[in-house]
Amino acid sequence: MDARPGVNGRSVDPDVEAELDKLGALPIVILRVRYRELFRSKPPSAFGPDLLRRSIAQRVQERAYGGGLSREAKKMLGQLIRSMASGKTGRLEVPQRIKPGSELVRVWNEQTHRVTVLAKGFAYQGEIFTSLSEIANRITGTRWNGPKFFGLRTTTKNATKVAATKTASKEVRRGRK
Known about the structure:
The chain is an alpha+beta fold. The protein folds into 2 domains: about 5-65, no CATH class; about 105-175, no CATH class. Helices cover about 45% and strands about 15% of the residues. The protein is built from 7 helices and 6 strands; from the N terminus they run E-E-H-H-H-H-E-E-E-E-H-H-H. It has helices at about 15-25, 30-40, 50-65, 70-85, 130-140, 145-150, 160-175; strands at about 5, 10, 105-110, 110-120, 120-125, 125-130. The chain has a 4-stranded antiparallel beta sheet, covered by helices on one side. It has a two-stranded antiparallel sheet with strand order 1-2. Strand 4 (about 110-120) and strand 5 form a beta hairpin. Helix 2 runs parallel beside helix 3 (about 50-65).
């Protein structure tokens, strides 16, 4: 097996390329067999030859060159599937991932509070906290759901209000107000 240069400096495996080239000529019966080999499940009945070829090509390339969904993304999809399968109705909320370095701004009792997101925790007034709820409690003196307090989660009643607050917060962070 002789690898040759490919896109972005990665080497291309000739065996993988040969398999991909053959996919276009394979009958649907063979494509279904190859799908079962790669995915360890029966192909969806709605998949015609085109979708089978695309699915197989993606899996072959993922195995050879890496890629695919991250472990976190697979975990989140699993949670969403379990939630849907349990028969819960209503809106599914995907947990927001806030990048370290982001700043959350909340005005409470006419005072602006700024929280910096860290890799592990949150910085507020020179202290490190493990949760936003701790900070919301410190600010208000009562128990709050921290993500709701900082506008990261909304209920349908106040979704519009929080969206407007978020827009204003972004403008404040950008120095527009």
